[in-house]
């Protein structure tokens, strides 16, 4: 679907239109102009003399602006078009669009230009679930201005649309009657201000350092500065070079200004997830840390600042728990959804501890570790108390809010993602395998921070003992001897949820797998049931719920594969890790360098290209971070004390991979790796 749509974005303000630049009301996909979870334009439809236009070409090279080159009629009718239209638009907290009508004839011509305008002020959750609005919408006509207003008690949003050229304005849009001389043109600049009012009657974005509004030039400069700060990549592998460049640009585009702290955060993904997510933000931070470490502290601090401190069943909040999702829209404001913020994830809390430690290992910034000692301790305490619902020493989940809370609170959070091999669904609570790996890793990292920075060796010893016991218990209880792999989860009775899934790859990344079982895990991950040739599937073929186009039950997720590759490399399976890197980079070539949220799990032998998943987010932060983590894996980058270990293992045929100015506590260093073929060629020369 996204291939048929055109999007521009600046942080969590974004616009999705069709290929003509038009927006038509939709309640099955979020087309329109959005900011902070509210749709400010649901209709934005251009006609010339009452006729829709057709796109000749679209310039969408920049994430924040695009141009549409249009003519009237369908393709068979425009061979001798006497008129064309250019729509140039840019976004930066608000929307600006310039309409230009060009008369290509040798005589003066009169045209009626019409833009239908409207807003349903839908909350993003209302689009997902097609709810009726409970407030009142009005349209106020002014001189060359149309003001669209929505109020529901204290909730107040407005879209203010202005035109630089004189227009006839009505409640449904603007009309221009224009007379254009031979080979001349007419234009007007439209501006759409998205007004988000707080309780005091002022746009609360005005209190942030950027005031919510930026020019395209400022956005361009900021994104280029981010790219310039990143290490410089030189390589022989064109897909790697393209994916790396695209990832840096997408990460720059996904940054938005937090209202709460006035810092720049990464939104999780367009169109559904343009906000802060605990799990997504942490995993993306781990991916980008070796390249752009300055992006990480704002996320850590924001998550710590919003850490749970009470029991709140509606929000799944518990003391010490790290949030899952933060929303600003109407349904969250009126508590029709619990996302203000919502804490329904069991993995964001241990991952928070992991990120804090990994950040210090790379940067040497021990002040942040000391500053957030209370938050890290609270997170570690949550793992062993509220997280251990059954008192078995494992991390379990079950929502406190069965009406609007998430049932599955692991990264595969769709309703049918956790199943037995035969397709049946287990009861609750559930203890998925990767959660135990995250908890194990968090305890070891917490022990390191306690010993080195919190001056608490006794606590460090305690955490290390707990981690050792967890690893021993896990390898006893989760291993399925007759199938030679770890169970996807334990059910409430402690029985194996025995589906074969990609989750076992995260176990390698965490380090909880016994050395004598690691090879068998690797063999499953690269075996034909899980590995499609384009990447590791979320669920193996022959499983009851396997579906190559099922969201978490057979698709390939790039971020998932990047952490699996990292885990394989950790246990010494460098060739296998390289195979995943190669498959992901090959797939990225078919997506113009931008890996989507997910793509279909069809076997590579069936398709000459990876098949799109119909509603995948793109760009998405942890997909944008995937090429970066793959680069870390290929070059074997690992911090050790004050030094960076570089141990390249570049797959056959990839040639030279050179990364310059890798930042960290060591200053800046360079890394160079070559595939065996490239090395042999150098020796021959």
Largest sheet: 8 strands, antiparallel
Number of helices: 18
* Strand ordering within the main sheet: 6-7-8-9-16-13-12-11
> For the residues shown, what is the average pLDDT?
93
Shape-level CATH architecture of the domain at 5-207: Distorted Sandwich
Apparent shape:
globular
Task: Give unreliable regions as ranges.
Answer: none
Class of the domain at 5-207 in CATH? Mainly Beta
Protein described:
There is one protein chain. Helix 4 runs antiparallel to helix 5, helix 10 runs parallel beside helix 12 and helix 12 crosses helix 14. A hairpin with a 2-residue loop joins strand 25 and strand 26. The chain has a domain of 203 residues: Glycoside hydrolase, family 65, N-terminal domain (Beta-galactosidase, Chain A, domain 5, Distorted Sandwich). It is α+β, with helices and mostly antiparallel strands. The strands form 8 sheets. It has an 8-stranded antiparallel β-sheet, with no helix packed on it. The chain has a 4-stranded antiparallel β-sheet with strand order 1-2-3-4, with no helix packed on it. Strands 5-10-15-14 form a 4-stranded antiparallel β-sheet, with no helix packed on it. The protein has 18 helices and 28 strands. 30% of the residues lie in helices and 24% in strands. The model has no long low-confidence stretch (mean pLDDT 93).
Question: Topology, please?
Answer:
Elements: E1 5-10, E2 13-18, E3 32-35, E4 38-41, E5 43-48, E6 53-62, E7 65-72, E8 83-91, E9 95-103, E10 109-118, H1 124-129, E11 136-142, E12 145-152, E13 155-163, E14 168-170, E15 173-180, E16 185-197, H2 216-229, E17 232-235, H3 238-253, E18 255-257, E19 264-266, H4 278-288, H5 296-305, H6 330-333, H7 348-363, H8 366-371, H9 373-384, E20 431-432, H10 433-452, H11 457-477, E21 479-480, E22 485-486, E23 489-490, E24 496-497, H12 503-510, H13 515-525, H14 558-570, H15 574-590, H16 621-624, H17 626-635, E25 637-640, E26 643-646, E27 656-664, E28 667-674, H18 676-684
Antiparallel strand pairs: 1-2, 2-3, 3-4, 5-10, 6-7, 7-8, 8-9, 9-16, 10-15, 11-12, 12-13, 13-16, 14-15, 17-27, 18-19, 20-23, 21-22, 23-24, 25-26, 27-28
Helix pairs in contact: 2-3, 3-15, 4-5, 4-7, 5-7, 7-9, 7-10, 9-10, 10-11, 10-12, 12-14, 14-15, 14-17, 15-17
């Amino acid at each position: 679907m996204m291939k048929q749509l055109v999007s521009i974005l600046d942080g969590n303000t974004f616009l999705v239109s069709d290929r003509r630049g038009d927006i038509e009301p939709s309640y099955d996909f979020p087309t329109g102009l959005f900011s902070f979870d509210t749709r400010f334009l649901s209709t934005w439809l251009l006609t010339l003399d009452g006729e829709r236009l057709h796109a000749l070409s679209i310039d969408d090279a920049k994430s924040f602006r695009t141009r549409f080159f249009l003519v009237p009629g369908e393709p068979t009718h425009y061979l001798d078009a006497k008129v064309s239209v250019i729509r140039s638009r840019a976004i930066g907290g608000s929307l600006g669009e310039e309409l230009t009508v060009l008369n290509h004839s040798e005589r003066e011509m009169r045209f009626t230009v019409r833009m239908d305008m409207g807003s349903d002020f839908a909350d993003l959750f209302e689009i997902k679930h097609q709810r009726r609005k409970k407030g009142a919408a009005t349209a106020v006509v002014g001189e060359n201005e149309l003001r669209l207003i929505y109020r529901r008690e204290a909730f107040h949003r407005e879209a203010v649309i202005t035109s630089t050229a004189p227009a006839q304005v009505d409640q449904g849009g603007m009309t221009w009657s224009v007379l254009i001389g031979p080979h001349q043109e007419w234009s007007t600049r439209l501006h759409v201000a998205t007004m988000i009012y707080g309780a005091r009657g002022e746009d609360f974005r005005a209190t942030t350092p950027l005031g919510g509004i930026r020019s395209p030039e400022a956005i361009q400069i900021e994104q280029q500065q981010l790219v310039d700060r990143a290490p410089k990549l030189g390589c022989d592998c064109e897909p790697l070079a393209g994916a790396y460049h695209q990832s840096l640009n997408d990460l720059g585009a996904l940054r938005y200004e937090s209202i709460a702290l006035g810092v720049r955060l990464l939104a999780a993904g367009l169109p559904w997830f343009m906000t802060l997510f605990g799990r997504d933000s942490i995993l993306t931070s781990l991916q980008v840390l070796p390249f752009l470490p300055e992006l990480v502290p704002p996320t850590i601090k924001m998550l710590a600042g919003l850490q749970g401190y009470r029991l709140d069943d509606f929000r799944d909040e518990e003391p010490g728990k790290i949030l899952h999702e933060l929303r600003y829209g109407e349904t969250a404001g009126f508590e029709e959804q619990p996302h203000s913020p919502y804490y329904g994830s069991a993995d964001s809390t241990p991952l928070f501890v992991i990120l804090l430690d990994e950040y210090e290992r790379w940067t040497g910034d021990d002040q942040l570790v000391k500053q957030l000692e209370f938050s890290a301790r609270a997170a570690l305490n949550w793992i062993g108390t509220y997280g251990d619902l059954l008192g078995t020493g494992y991390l379990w989940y079950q929502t406190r809010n069965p009406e609007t809370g998430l049932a599955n609170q692991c990264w595969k959070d769709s309703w049918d993602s956790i199943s037995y091999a035969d397709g049946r669904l287990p009861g609750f609570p559930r203890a998925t395998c990767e959660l135990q790996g995250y908890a194990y890793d968090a305890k070891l990292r917490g022990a390191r921070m306690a010993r080195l920075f919190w001056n608490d060796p006794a606590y460090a010893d305690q955490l290390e003992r707990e981690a050792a016991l967890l690893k021993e218990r896990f390898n006893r209880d989760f291993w399925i001897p007759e199938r030679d792999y770890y169970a996807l989860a334990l059910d409430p009775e402690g029985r194996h949820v025995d589906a074969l899934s990609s989750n076992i790859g995260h176990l390698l990344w965490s380090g909880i797998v016994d050395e004598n079982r690691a090879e068998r895990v690797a063999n499953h991950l690269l075996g034909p049931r899980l590995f499609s040739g384009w990447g590791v599937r979320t669920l193996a073929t022959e499983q009851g719920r396997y579906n190559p186009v099922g969201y978490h039950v057979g698709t390939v997720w790039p971020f998932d594969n990047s952490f699996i590759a990292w885990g394989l490399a950790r246990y010494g399976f460098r060739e296998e890790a390289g195979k995943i890197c190669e498959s992901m980079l090959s797939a990225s070539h078919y997506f113009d360098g931008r890996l989507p949220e997910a793509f279909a799990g069809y076997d590579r032998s069936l398709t000459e290209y990876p098949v799109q998943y119909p509603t995948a987010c793109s760009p998405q932060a942890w997909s944008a971070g995937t090429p970066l983590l793959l680069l870390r894996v290929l070059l074997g980058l690992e911090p050790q004390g004050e030094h960076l270990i570089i141990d390249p293992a570049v797959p056959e045929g990839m040639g030279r991979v050179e990364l310059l100015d890798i930042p960290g506590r060591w200053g800046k260093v360079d890394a160079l790796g070559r595939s065996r073929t490239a090395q042999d060629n150098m020796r021959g020369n």
